Amino acid sequence: MVALGSSFAAGPLLRPVADRPAMRSMRNYPRLLAGRLGCELVDLTVSGATTKTVIDVPQVTMTGEQYPPQLAGMPPDADLVTITVGGNDIGFIGAMMYHAWRRHDAKSLVLQGIEPPGALEDPIGRVAEGLGRVVRAVREHAPGARIVLVDYLTVLDDDRGSAEIDYSATELALFRQRQTQLAAGFRRAADDEAVDLMPISAASSGHGLGSAEPFVFDFIPDPLRTTGSFHPNERGMAFVADQLADRLSGDRLP
């Protein structure tokens, strides 16, 4: 099994840590899923990844470490490939982080490392096109692999918001719009490329911020740990792994 993707697959803040510069956990959903399926895992996920850094652009992390494109590490005999990436292509969590820190501490140095959110042209198409390129590149590298697109856990339900940051109605509308666009991009890519989709966004509805059992962390104001804000917690990662295991455990791979 090979895991490709960004922080929603890598698992920043979740201990124990597998790779600190990549902010990759040993309790992320790829590792949990591989254990459930009895697979040997090649985890190539890196927090902050985009579809481009998965395919052909080296990635430089916040600490200055450089990682080659994730596909460079893919074994050609992979049986199963999970893909969770695309949110950074449209600045989904970045927008939430930017506005959170502006409200929490507008003078914080953290803001210097966050790109202000701006208007996007065809965000659904941007996600779908990027994911499509990833899928086609995976097929070239590992032609026998079964590919599963795994979209993002719900961060914001329709009726709740952060308990830590008093976002405006306009800001919440923007975040929910990008969340919806991200899920739509995954659906389009799955249809266009004829690959499996695990719609985690729909399955985790009701477990966003402010719910009785959230699957994501709320805003974390500690600059050393803030990268985990709005990202999967342990319950969220276990939920994704369980959903995938239930679908895949009875199937032959690839």
Q: What does this protein structure show overall?
A:
This protein has 254 residues and is α/β, with parallel strands linked by helices. The protein has a single domain, classed as SGNH hydrolase (Rossmann fold, 3-Layer(aba) Sandwich). It has helices spanning 7-10, 29-37, 51-55, 92-104, 123-141, 169-193, 200-203, 234-248; strands at residues 2-5, 17-19, 24-25, 42-43, 59-60, 66-67, 80-84, 146-150, 196-198. It has a 5-stranded parallel β-sheet with strand order 4-1-7-8-9. Strands 2-3 form a two-stranded antiparallel sheet. The protein has a two-stranded antiparallel ribbon with strand order 5-6. The mean pLDDT is 96.
Radius of gyration from the alpha-carbon trace, in angstroms: 17 Å
Strand order in the sheet with the most strands: 4-1-7-8-9
CATH superfamily: SGNH hydrolase
CATH architecture: 3-Layer(aba) Sandwich
What multimeric state do the chains show? single chain
- Quickly count the domains: 1
H-E order: EHEEHEHEEEHHEHEHH
β-strand amount? 5-15%
Report the sheet with the most strands, covering strand number, pairing sense and barrel closure: 5 strands, parallel
Number of helices: 8
The CATH class, by name, is Alpha Beta
First-residue to last-residue Cα separation: 10 Å
What do the pLDDT scores average to?
96
Helix content: 25-40%
